[in-house]
Design goal:
The chain has 10 helices and 15 strands. The protein has 345 residues and is an alpha/beta fold. Bound molecules: NADP nicotinamide-adenine-dinucleotide phosphate (NAP).
Amino acid sequence: MSTDLASAINHQVRLAARPLGLPRDGDWRFTEEPVALPDEGGVLVRATHLSLDPAMRGWMNEGKSYIAPVGIGEVMRAGGIGVVVASKNPAFAVGDKVSGTLGVQTYCLVPAGHIGRSGLARIDTKLGSDTQWLNVLGMPGMTGYFGLMDIGQPKPGETVVVSGAAGAVGQTVGQLAKIKGCRVVGIAGGADKCRFVVDELGFDACIDYKAGSVRDGLKQHCPGGVDIYFDNVGGEILDTVLTRINRKARIVICGAISQYNATAPVQGPKNYLSLLVNRARMEGVVVFDYAERYPAAIAELAGYLKDGRMKSREDVVKGLASFPAALLRLFDGGNFGKLVLDVSG
Ligand code: NAP
């Protein structure tokens, strides 16, 4: 063990309790333990940037989902970027930059049998910065790419509406839909986010759902109706968009952040009969289903970043201690762009 690693401490954030509603400080426990070196086939990663995601709220709940809940007492699950600091695996060398499920901690020991499950992969820093690897080139970008391309199936001239437009997934969806020749209307909270989406990301329009009626905004900006709705928020906004869809519209159910902290059972969309009338369909997307196709999507999106057709915005918060408060930003719109925790310091 090198002297540095011999004395290194892993700082961690563990799930202490299952929240009711918004997570509170008492739902987390900060722990520290000495760093352990990998056995044969394992890798030790020093985390630099962690991804804070709305899905984390779901992982804190008991119950069946597309992935097992985080157990009480376990290190909170998180994707991240880091540097290999010790390796007994020929596929990873000390100094390699990697992405994977690192957890909310400063060091992640990935044993031989967990390399695949943790999605540990070397990243090419020539294609994008660390934070872009958690945004457009990472999980949110892959979600936007496959949700839009495989489920939305955009055609030139169609009208695409995307909620959470200034956020991580929304940025990729809207810009990609523009590249594919669509008219794109975002929905976001606040004048600054709407301005960013139109002026910097090149959307055709953006509806500020906090300032006025989404219904009026859709009438104004989508006079020919909506062909694809990429839904990141669920709730009333989904219900409203359902009243404006065209025949054969596709609704991509990516997320429903407005419902994640609800203490009452989630209500289904009231206006679902619009699907019948319009011969439309609504389909969920889970990004992990597309893992084998990530390399092709990353190559395409990296090309757009390089030639300037796509921009990315990340909102970086410093320090592991900031995790509980930073996570809450996702649920009140306090983040402006992909929320990232910098734990490199
Ligand atoms: P994000 O958009 O970067 O951040 C969350 C944003 O949600 C906030 O900034 C806020 O933006 C908006 N929001 C929060 N509460 C809201 C409410 N009550 N009504 C309307 N908007 C609200 O987050 P992200 O990482 O890109 O995730 C976006 C969605 O995609 C989430 O629902 C997430 O769960 C989902 N997702 C799904 C998959 C999948 O595989 N299915 C993968 C990744 C993400 P405003 O300021 O505009 O309100």
